[in-house]
Amino acid sequence: MMMLWNPDVHTASIDKSIDFISNAIRKPQHPDILDSYFTFLFLFVDAYHEKVTAQIKAIIPVLMDIPLSRSLANVLKMIMMRIPKLRLNVQDGVMASVYLTLTGTVIPPKSEPIGRPPSPRAILQRAETEPKELQKIVLAVDVLGEFYFSRGALQRIMQYVADYYLTAENVEIRLAAVSSCCEMVVPFVGVYKKVTSDKRNSLLQTIYGVLRAVCSVIVNDPDVRVRMQVISCFGQMPRPFLAHLAQPEMLEVQFMALHDEKLEMQQACVTLLGRLAELNPALVLPRLRLMLLETLSQMMQSGQARLEQHSAKMIAQLAKQSPKFMRPYVGSLMIAMIPKMRNDQKYTEVTAQVLNAISEIAVIGGAEIVKNLKPLFEKLTHMINDSSSLHKREAALRAIGGICRSTAYVVDPYRDYPTLLDDLLRILKTVMSNTMRREAIKTLGILGAIDPYTHKVFTGSVQSPTAISTALSLPITDTDSKDPRQDIIHWFNYEKCTLEEFYPMITIANLMLMMQDEDSQSYAEIAQAIVTIFRSLGEVAPQYAEQVVPRLIEVCRRATADSNRANLREFFLQQLAIFVKIIKHHAAPYMPAIFTIIADAWKEDISVKMVVIEVLTEMGNAIGNDFSKYTGELIPYLLTVLQTDKTKERVLTVKVMESMRLLTYCIVQHLHLVLPPLLIILDDVSLKLSIRQTALDTVLHMTSAVDVSAYAPRMMQSWHHNISTFEMRDKLLVLLIEIIKQLGKFFDIFKRGVDQKLRDYNLDKCEHYEQYRKLSQRAQMSRDVITSLVFAGSNGNLQSAQALMRGGSAMLGNADLQERLMNGSIDSGVSRTDGRDDYYGYGLDEKKEAPKVPTSARSTSELVTVKISKQRLNKDLFTLWKNENLTSKDEWLQWLLKIRIGFLKSGSSPSLRAASSLGDQHQHLARDLFPAAFMSVWTEIDSDVQNELTTSLLRALETGYSELIQTILNLAEFMDHSEKGPLPIDHKTLGDCAEKTKAFAKASRYKEMEILRRSDKQIQMSVDDCQSLITYANKLNVQEEAAGVVRYAERNRMNIKMRGRWYEKLNEWEKALEAYHSETTSATASASHSESSAHSTAMPVSQTDSFAVEDARMHEMRCLEALAQWDKLNEKSLVWAGTRDRRDQRLLMSNEGRQLDHKMAVIAARGAWAVDDWTKMAEYVSAISENTQDGAMLRAVVAVHKPCFCKRGVVIAHPYLGGYGRLPLMDLI
């Protein structure tokens, strides 16, 4: 140290010091003492530099005779740095020592050509047993990278180190070899562009030979530390070095590391590729884009906190390394990450990493970040107050600062989130973490200053001068749901659908109405019947899906939510799967709702989960490749089982793996999520061997079905882990063969390790080994050919190699492999369906059929295959419709029920027959489907049987029982609209029966059809016909039709009785008054004639004549009231009142007479009220009964105008006794 600090003072002692050191190190010394001498030499050279060149040159031979150690290496390195003239001497000596240590042979003279030293197997074996030998080798390898050897010296040994020491058994040796190989390549890379073109190819071979070996370590080394060391060294290399790493062949190997089994390795690889993207964007960016999509999928669908945290780190690395590349995807990233900002304690680290990623994205986000400011800040302002995790609070603060800085969203956050400023100041006062306080101060600086008064306004401490108004929205009224059968009837009647279309449609509509009944106990039978119908429909089934699937989904959702219907959950889930299987891609609109039901059912016990998995599998098989768009919903359920099922037998796990085999083509886009859990199960030695074999079968099936070459490193790692298990070796060899077929030339990376494993376990003599050997040789040959052609050209491209590959396909014997070799890349998203061999059959089990729920519904095979012959049909039904001996009503109703069910069971339509078993239990279903069932039988029987059936129906009509008549009328109406109708029953008969049962619409229709039939025979419509039509029209409240009939009668001058009532119903009061006036005159004359005849014959006047006179007078008064002709009405009233006492007592005593007198009194009272004649009104009111509504109301009116008001309250309140319907009469008071 004295010589170091004062070199000039001790210059005279240099020779003595060197002689002393030289003599000391020649003698055998303890290593610690030697290290002291070497430390002195290190400082000595550092102090005197070139002044001691002669002395150091003399001691160099002595140093070279000493075994290499770390202290000696430091001394020699210092000599090279401080005394450039001795660099060559030191390099030669060190190289000779290193060469001897690593190869076991003396380094040849420089004049001799470069040769290949023998394999260092013995040296490496000694290193495994002797720690000193191991340290010696590690030091020698390190020295190769630390000393600045000449390219000629390095060229003798660098490829040797790359070939043997990068693949040594000891991890320390491999770690040192990785760093050393990277450093040794740097001098060659630096002069690559400076050398002439004739030497460039040989130089490129040297560089690529080492780089290829180092890159293979990324995916081939079993220790993650070594793999990480490669990525770390690559990241520290200069740009010219990275330019060689950015070549296609090197990139393909690095791409494989993106699916490494260790997540930190994937993150490091993304960081490296982010740097390489600038050098070769055409190859790197597409793969980064694919990796980004996989990362987003992993974040949104994995359901595992560890993977979500990893995804957030990957996104942050990509945003940091390749901001231009990430900018177009900011919107999608925000959609994926905002939901992951959760407050749950178990997701604390995930949220923190997501916030860090958002901070990085905010720098490049631009408008997309501005669009998401509100949802972001709503969560961030809450998280900075969450004291449960300091890490998350700090990340939230950093995110707020980054977003505000990048979007210029300053000061405004204080207004939008009034408590933000107080929260930040509270952090400064209460949080003790320096990092947190620093972030809070930084965030305050970014947000900017705010006026204190304005802040008080924002927080509500001071009233704002602006007013805020709110608006109320109008209530929304729901429209009533329509009966679906009405649409079908309309379709059948007016759009003329065929019977083959109508039968299933009406059956399904009735069954779905039954399913709407929440208290129904026949859900299973109904669903089974509908499934049977759909299966019988074949290709036309999808057009009926809109009727069934939404309702079935609703019932299934209700069953899933209702704990009392737990036994129906599995059944309905299975029925949904069957429907999806039948309608296939037409189920697309209903898939979101189905997955919602599955999400609810997934919370149940293991049996329901088993059914859910079966349902998902069946739907995937039914929809086929189109199911791929829904696998984003499917994957979380599968992954949840694979990652969380900890039961001993792993029943769910096995079920999921079997399902994955069947859905391989659908989940190909999610292999990055599916394969790792499968391989983890395969590697888990704590599991039963059968479970691991199931995982291996699943992986093998996927490998044979789709391209998994991008995941080859991860699969080969599992292969190495499990090849020691005897029971799995055969299938592992088949898996190895499949991987070779997909990797092609890139399998060369794994070949050495595979060969070693095969030798270790004596598998080089098994039945699959020969196929493996041939494929691996072809892969090696393709690599050698392409490599030689690449270096043969001047520009190092693949054009000549690709040309040879096109012409020499026989060399490979595999068109798919040849294709990938020519393209120079591996596409992980392309499935392979050609060129499979028998090995692909390993591990495929037959699909087990799901247990069926027993129901009373008839099976599909029974219904669809039944042939309805005429002979069988006649024999079965002939006894059913016989009704000659029936007498009582119960017998007739029983007959009706029997023919309904019998026709339903024996119809020609499979859809109707499917509902027959339900018709036995639910009579209303048999009733609703009877017209369709009758028609399906009617079209199959001959004319004689039809006549017999018609006779039976006529007998039923003659009974007069309303239910029988209504059923036959409905049947007749249905058949009138059918292409096979009508029912051969006379219209007059049907019309009379309809009138008896008060089915006036049908009666009117049959009357019209009867009239039209007569008009064809030139027979005019009669007065009775007009009377009937007007009666039906009035009953149906169809005034237009009645008016039309009246116009017809007038135009044809028909002598119509009671014409006034026709006009009255048409509200033509003037014509009615005229008609009633004529009736009054005629009735009065008739009555006078009868009276004169009675006097001459001493016989009483007919009661009918008296009633006709009074009735005509009452109608005349009603017309005057409607026309408001009060004077004429009052005159009529006076006449009525004056003659009331002289009327026929027989008329007053009859019920009709009293009603008529009551009506005339009410009309007279209203007429007096209209002209304020209260005396006459009181007189007329006295003739009205008090117990009627009109009597009570009119008495109340009279009481109002009397001087005494004491009874008014009682009288006025009296109308309230009748209920609310009479209250409007109070308005007249």
TrEMBL record:
Keywords: ATP-binding, Kinase, Nucleotide-binding, Serine/threonine-protein kinase, Transferase. Residues 410-584 form the Serine/threonine-protein kinase mTOR domain. This is Serine/threonine-protein kinase TOR. The keyword ATP-binding applies. One of its GO terms (cellular component) is TORC1 complex. Residues 1082-1102 are annotated as: Disordered. Its EC number is 2.7.11.1. Belongs to the PI3/PI4-kinase family. It catalyses: L-threonyl-[protein] + ATP = O-phospho-L-threonyl-[protein] + ADP + H(+). It comes from the Eukaryota. GO terms for biological process: negative regulation of macroautophagy; TORC1 signaling. Residues 1082-1098 have a biased composition (Low complexity). InterPro entries: ARM-like (IPR011989), ARM-type_fold (IPR016024), DDR_Repair_Kinase (IPR050517), mTOR_dom (IPR024585). GO terms for molecular function: ATP binding; protein serine/threonine kinase activity.
